[in-house]
Automatic annotation (TrEMBL):
Keywords: Calcium, Hydrolase
SMART domains cross-referenced by the UniProt entry: EFh, PP2Ac
Similarity-based family: Belongs to the PPP phosphatase family.
Domain EF-hand: 84-111, 120-155
Natural source organism: Polarella glacialis
Protein name: Serine/threonine-protein phosphatase
Listed Low complexity bias regions: 279-296
Domain of life: Eukaryota
This enzyme's EC code(s): 3.1.3.16
Record keyword Hydrolase present: yes
InterPro entries to which the protein is assigned, alphabetical: Calcineurin-like_PHP (IPR004843), EF-hand-dom_pair (IPR011992), EF_Hand_1_Ca_BS (IPR018247), EF_hand_dom (IPR002048), Metallo-depent_PP-like (IPR029052), Ser/Thr-sp_prot-phosphatase (IPR006186)
């Protein structure tokens, strides 16, 4: 635990050490965050800027000098210049050191991730805490927590009338004062959701400087704050009227604008589990509410969109538009596809979540049905499947005689995440009893903030992209985690791991279903089962029995053929169909034919040259047995050169190789 005096941390004397928790040295965090984000060029530029404007005291910026920089390079609304100065001035001496200036601008940049375990994320959390700790007494009073919750809801476009109730409920879960340790713990455990958009400038200062210099060289007008062509695509300030009042302590009464950002820990939904996580009966209402409320219609409907007929028409338009485009040369539309507006996307989300809310975590699916594996934003492959075999459509498809199961990983990696979601949500709205969407491990904020979905939302919807991403992830928490076909075949994204023993383990999981970030001593069995359902894999081949550590990390495992056979015997199953791993031919059996992996995207990330497959399940008329038939599209059938993102957060997972293939 730090032994620095409270004053050095930007806090009043008397700050209780027991409340510091994970608070770390500011200087160390700044250095580590700069290394983490490769921020050396930005730092050099900002240090030079600091020296240039530092006149009253060498190496330090006065308030007027700091404001002069932000006026010269407008990265945020002028109403917040004083807000940031007071916040960055940690020792409250009226000056910012170079470290104060660098650390502050890095923390509030819209390009800085909000991953709590990273140095940059921890730096942001410290500033957010200080921002709402208006009197700098080292703890958040209930009123200050309520102000934060109110701001989060306002940024989501949902004025929050129960902020004080929620804040009281949250604070009551912690003994003693609600200090930084409690604040950080509540965010980690997802009891306090949506902190990522808080405390952001509209543009990154370094990028504003770069664009300004570039514009001056080309004789163009310098970019204004929030210019549409800025790389990070800023938001308009939704709460500018709150910006005028701000106390000298920095915090509670004013909200800094929330631009597009790269959040990793803003997790919505109702947490579960004790003692630190509220139970359904005690959870604060802001954490329990899904994106759309069953007692009220979405705003889009209330504004005259035609109610249920309006959203049905929208969903049908999406499907028919893609049906039309799929018959045209792909080069004509692949670079400029825009299926829906931001408002329409939110309407799809608000509508489909009500359908998902009514489904159990284990959905029952009748025969016959088609089962798709990972799509990963690869719309071009999905359209090829529909054209080659059948569309889930009433005009030119088999939707009245066929059910469809999609086994998750709809987003990330590929270039069309938003479009795939628009299509799948539209199909679910049109045919709610025929289309079944199962959750994959990428339908999770902690994953899709990095692997393409977040970036696609921002690219397609600009200022509204952040809200689109948040809302879609809210919907993902209501997806089922498994499907049972004709009481004979379990369809699941990852597998059974070592924690799932019966079908009942997958039933009745309260929604929204949250995915824990890591396994620790407080992790419940239910949380482990959700992780296994989304993340686990079979072992390398049928000769590797038992349960083994997973190369994906400590949160899940690999399970052997003996586990599969015992699970199927105990539950009266013929087969488990799962996705989650790329396989050479699009489908691959395991456990002597009792488990089948299916992967529906070809040439994964333009690297694996794999085929894609979908599985059709029907009943054999002679025997009455459920039988499966794989339908395949070969690698190269679809030109995926633009379908996959060029830059990947991490290299794609290696292809699954069985022992029979020599690996």
């Amino acid at each position: 635990m730090s032994t620095l005096p409270a004053r050095a941390l930007g806090l009043q004397e008397g700050y209780s050490q027991e409340q510091w928790g994970p608070w770390r040295s500011f200087g160390l965090l700044v250095q580590q965050a700069m290394t983490e984000l490769s921020w050396q060029d930005s730092a050099a530029t900002l240090i030079a800027l600091c020296k240039e404007h530092s006149r009253s005291q060498e190496g330090y910026l006065s308030k007027d000098e700091f404001v002069a920089i932000l006026l010269r390079y407008p990265c945020c609304n002028a109403a917040y210049h004083s807000v940031f100065f007071e916040l960055f001035d940690r020792n409250q001496d009226g000056y910012l050191s170079e470290s104060d200036f660098l650390g502050g601008m890095l923390a509030v940049s819209p390009l800085t991730p909000h991953k709590l375990e990273s140095p940059s994320g921890q730096l942001r959390m410290q500033f957010i805490f200080l921002y709402y700790d208006a009197n700098r007494n080292g703890r958040l009073e209930v009123e200050e927590v309520a102000k934060m919750i109110e701001h989060i809801q306002q940024l989501r476009g949902k004025p929050h009338t129960d902020a004080m109730v929620d804040a009281t409920a949250l604070a009551s879960l912690y003994s003693g004062a609600f200090g930084f340790a409690a604040f950080y713990d509540a965010a980690q455990k997802r009891m306090l959701n949506g902190t990522s958009p808080l405390l952001r400038t509209q543009q990154d200062l370094f990028e504003t400087i770069r664009l300004s210099l570039s514009s001056e060289k080309s004789s163009d007008a310098p970019p204004a704050s929030g210019a549409a062509h800025a790389p990070q695509r800023s938001h308009e300030d939704p709460l500018a009227s709150l910006g005028a009042a701000h106390g000298s302590g920095g915090g509670g009464s004013c909200l800094v604008s929330a631009p597009v950002s790269l959040p990793q820990a803003c997790l919505a939904g109702s947490p579960g589990g004790a003692p630190h996580t509220p139970t359904p009966t005690q959870s604060p209402s802001s954490m329990a509410r899904p994106p759309a409320r069953s007692n009220s219609q979405p705003e889009y409907w209330r504004s005259g969109a035609g109610g249920d007929q309006g959203v049905q028409a929208l969903a049908l338009r999406v499907v028919r538009k893609l049906m039309e485009l799929s018959n045209q040369p792909i080069a004509d539309w692949r670079y400029s596809l825009q299926l829906v507006t931001s408002r329409e996307f939110l309407l799809l989300c608000d509508t489909v979540v009500e359908l998902l809310r009514q489904e159990d975590s284990l959905v029952e699916v009748p025969l016959p049905c088609r089962v798709y594996g990972d799509i990963h934003g690869q719309l071009l492959d999905l359209l090829e499947f529909f054209n080659a075999f059948s569309w889930p459509d009433k005009r030119r498809g088999d939707i009245f005689s066929m059910n469809y199961v999609f086994l998750g990983d709809f987003v990330d990696r590929g270039a069309y995440s938003c479009d795939v979601i628009s299509l799948l949500f539209s199909l679910k709205i049109l045919y709610p009893s025929r289309i079944f969407l199962i959750r994959g491990n990428h339908e999770d904020r902690l994953m899709n903030v990095n692997y393409g979905f977040h970036a696609d939302c921002v690219r397609k919807f600009a200022r509204e992209g952040e809200d689109i991403w948040e809302r879609a992830n809210d919907v993902f928490e209501f997806l089922p985690i498994a499907a049972l076909v004709e009481s004979a075949i379990l369809c699941i994204h990852g597998g059974i791991g070592d924690s799932i023993a019966t079908l009942d383990d997958l039933r009745g999981i309260p929604k929204p279903i949250q995915v824990v970030g890591e396994i620790n001593e407080r992790t419940t069995r239910r949380d482990r089962m959700v992780l296994d359902a989304l993340w686990s894999d079979p072992t390398d081949n049928d000769q590797v029995l038992g349960v083994h550590a997973s190369p994906r990390g400590k949160n899940t495992c690999r399970f052997g053929p003996d586990r599969v056979q015992e699970f199927n015997r105990r539950n009266g199953l013929k087969l488990i169909i799962r996705a989650h791993e790329c396989v050479q031919h699009g489908y691959e059996y395991f456990a002597a034919g009792q488990l089948l992996t299916v992967f529906s995207a070809t040439n994964y990330c333009n690297q694996h040259d794999n085929d894609g497959a979908m599985v059709v399940l029907v009943k054999d008329e002679r025997t009455g047995e459920v039988v499966e038939h794989a339908q395949v599209i070969k690698s190269g059938t679809v030109d995926t050169s633009h379908g996959w993102n060029d830059q990947q957060f991490r290299a794609p997972s290696p292809m699954r190789r069985t022992g029979a293939e020599g690996h």
